[in-house]
Amino acid sequence: MRLLHYEPAVPNFGDDLNPLLWPELAPGLFGQDVSLPGTGTGNGTAFVGIGTIIGIDPAGCSRLHVFTSGAGYSDPARWQGLDVRYHCVRGPVSARALGLPADRALTDGAVLVPRSPSFADLASRPSTTRTVVMPHYETLAFPGWSRAAQLAGFDIVDPRGSPRDVIAALAGARLVLTESLHGAILADAFGVPWRGFAVSRNFSTAKWADWAASLDMDVTVALVPPPDPMPLLRFGKRPEPFGTMIALDPEAALAEFRARIAAPPKVALVRRQAKRVLEAVPVTRRLLGFSPERTAQALVELATRDPFVSNPSRRAGLADEMLERLYRLAKEAGASAAVLA
């Protein structure tokens, strides 16, 4: 069986977890091309893992085993005609969008990271007194975030780093402020309190609501002004004013999912033209009122709010069930699953 996962143009620790986590938990399940998901070679069977990747290019595989993946970016109809088995998906929004039974909704596969031998030691490390800030990897491509975190007295964590380094920073924090969904998921998996924030339309309330609902969490996300306006011109500005606390409503999330599939967001011509001007003349961007100081103030205010963390018993129960389903899949495939404590 081959491992199918998203590989962005730049590293992203959530996606990069796939070739580290699954072969360790079920070592006999995968073939030698475990880290080469785009070649279309092998026996035509693939394991679809962590990420919002339901509907991803099947890379020549005709049989797909979906395990903890989420819906939201690609049209599932892309898999029409394939033999697709949904062992579990990221949450109830994905299950409803796909018309699956409710028991197919578990949670994101990254909940198993603390049980993986390569990461288990992070759970026993003493926590620091630091608050860390993790923007989305695409947001962090624009300037000002390191300065904003410094002004707030916080540490920046770059999701483009190695999974081991990124997860160690999250697991050892006192509080995690994150635009990256997997920043919240991994903090939560290690029992570290967190708060989410959005910057632009690049933030998907659908996938956040999907995951939060899987853990029975009633979550809000803060809309934070970026230190530089380019993310707003690149991805679009949300309609709410900065400072709004956005509720993650599953019904609204399902509507967002359907809208994204029906008509992927497009950047208007006037916005593309404005973006080119502002990229060419950085000094003009400061005239729009965005600055690291403004972002730092918003992050400091967010850090004063009560944080979120899921119920440990709920989290452990989902992880237990997920490992059981992984073991059954490996057994059915004639492979050996790892025996985990």
Provide an overview of this structure.
The protein is an alpha/beta fold and 341 residues long. Helix content is 35%, strand content 13%. The protein has helices at 13-16, 18-25, 92-98, 145-152, 163-171, 181-189, 205-214, 230-235, 250-262, 269-280, 292-303, 312-332, and strands spanning 2-4, 45-48, 63-69, 83-89, 131-134, 155-156, 175-178, 194-198, 220-223, 245-247. Strands 6-5-7-8-9-10 form a six-stranded mixed sheet, with helices on both faces. A four-stranded parallel sheet has the order 1-2-3-4. The longest helix has 21 residues, at 312-332. The model is unreliable at 32-42 (pLDDT under 50).
SSE blueprint:
Elements lengths: L1 E3 L8 H4 L1 H8 L19 E4 L14 E7 L13 E7 L2 H7 L32 E4 L10 H8 L2 E2 L6 H9 L3 E4 L2 H9 L4 E5 L6 H10 L5 E4 L6 H6 L9 E3 L2 H13 L6 H12 L11 H12 L8 H21 L9
Parallel strand pairs: 1-2, 2-3, 3-4, 5-6, 5-7, 7-8, 8-9
Antiparallel strand pairs: 9-10
Shape: globular
Major beta sheet, strand line-up: 6-5-7-8-9-10
The structure class reads: alpha/beta
Q: What's the β-strand tally?
A: 10
Query: DSSP strand (E) fraction?
Result: 5-15%
**Continuous helix count:** 12
Mean pLDDT: 88
